[in-house]
Amino acid sequence: MASFSSYRRTPRSAASVNADIRALWARARGRLSADERVAYDLLVVEWAAAVRGEQRRAA
């Protein structure tokens, strides 16, 4: 399972987080358990922050 982003000191790229999201869905075979749903929600928040950060750096 993916590690929680709140424990990371440096942000990951959106592509890296997206890979974790895809891997989570692949392992779950399209049906997330309650724990997997929590992990997914955290990954989506991390992904959105990474996208915003990458957009700021590109501007």
Question: How would you describe this protein?
Answer:
With 59 residues, the protein is an all-alpha fold. The chain has helices spanning 14-28, 34-58. Helix 1 packs antiparallel against helix 2 (34-58). The model has no long low-confidence stretch (mean pLDDT 89).
Give me the secondary-structure topology.
Blueprint: H1 14-28, H2 34-58
Helix pairs in contact: 1-2
Main β sheet profile:
none
The proportion of residues in beta strands is under 5%
Q: Would you tell me the structural class of the helices and strands?
A: mainly alpha
Portion of residues within helices = 55-70%
**SS field, number of helical segments:** 2
Low-confidence stretches: none
- From N to C, what is the helix and strand string? HH
- Record field, number of beta strands: 0
Molecular shape = elongated
Mean pLDDT over the residues: 89
Straight-line distance between termini: 33 Å
Measured on Cα atoms, how large is the radius of gyration?
12 Å
List keywords for this structure.
single chain; 59 residues; mainly alpha; 2 helices; 0% strand; elongated
Summary of the model, kept short:
The chain is built from two helices and no strands. The chain has helices spanning 14-28, 34-58. It is elongated.
